[in-house]
Amino acid sequence: SGKTLLSGLMLSTNAMRYEDTPQHVIAVDFHRPLVFKLGSVLLPCCLLALLASCCWSNFAAYVQMRSFKVKGVEKQLGPYDPYDYSGTGVLFKLFVPGSQFQKREVLQPLMLCIGLYVAFTATWLCIVKDVKDLDDSHITYMSTYINGFLPFFLAQFVSGTFSRWWTNRTAGLGAVYGAFEDLCVLLGAHCPSHEFGAQRDALLRYGSAINVLIFQLARKEEELTQLHSDGLLTKDECQCLAESSGNKARLIWQWILEMWVALHKAGHVDRWTLNEAKECVERGRQGVQVIFTHLTCQVPVTWLHLMTFVVTFSCVVLSLKCSVATALHLSRWEDKYYCSFSWEGGLLCHDEVVDGTTRIFSQFCQITMLPFIYFGFLSFCNALENPFGYDAIDFPRQAYAANLEAMGKGYFQVSGHGAECGTWRSPSQSST
User: Does the global pTM surpass 0.90?
Assistant: First the structure.
């Protein structure tokens, strides 16, 4: 009958299609253009060489980073060239100072997520009777939903933490350094002669001591003997601070104001200059207060705990989703899907090999990149809560101290040399 003839033709066609499997296609001795043959061999080799170079470069950077990682040593970056950390070359610089690839609190959760992904995948392949019948649509929807709103809350968390960090630098340290420089300008302008060398040295010492004490107190490493050994405070001054209560970085401003009051009583500065000095002292004291207000009033623990829980839960769901998808792709892999190499045809791969590999690789990228980004931002925010430590992204204490001392001395060095014989002259008048 017609139906029997039609079904017979369909069966014969399916049989022909089955016999025309990729392994037969690959074995056919056909000739492709030479450029395709060379490209099928050289391009994979170039990609492997690039990957090996990237791995070796990062391994060397990691070994160098570990050799210089000494506890208690200043490792802050300070000024850097943005072009060294941007561009595609960043793939060869994963372990540079300041990178999140150095953080144990980032790498440990990442390894946990990868371990869950591998364990879940092996579990589905072992306990499910027919893995091909698994349905990953529901877990994929759940993972997509969670990762859809999580970045919004994480962005708010990062923005708030960064705002606190910037306030510490501008309204905190910036106010302290600005007040100190203003006092140096006032002292150099109103007391320009060398007979005020003791007052100048005292102001330089007190300003540097305040800077050192800010970092010591923020690190909870108060050590007044270091200030005495560095020549910033006398023995009696250190003893006075040790016996005093309160924030010692703020107490030194009292000595600075007393010095200006003594200059006013001696008739060296007028009332207006004394008031200006009082305002500078007030700004500097408030700058120190801003710093330690932010350090003692931390982000609410409920907000931090909630963000950490949501991130961790999202990564666990992501591990489950990626494992189901990977198990599905592995179960559909058949022996007839493979790659073959011959001198006549070059390197040939079945399309299912490339398709399955890219799908599994995409799942692996998700389970590595998303947890790394989430936990990386959490670690970054925790580090910014106290930017006065030893970490690479913390404030460079030594650079700030050197600049503070240099600016103070510079104001005193140029004071009194801007006018000749007490009268202002233009450059043309000075040359004549």
Answer: no
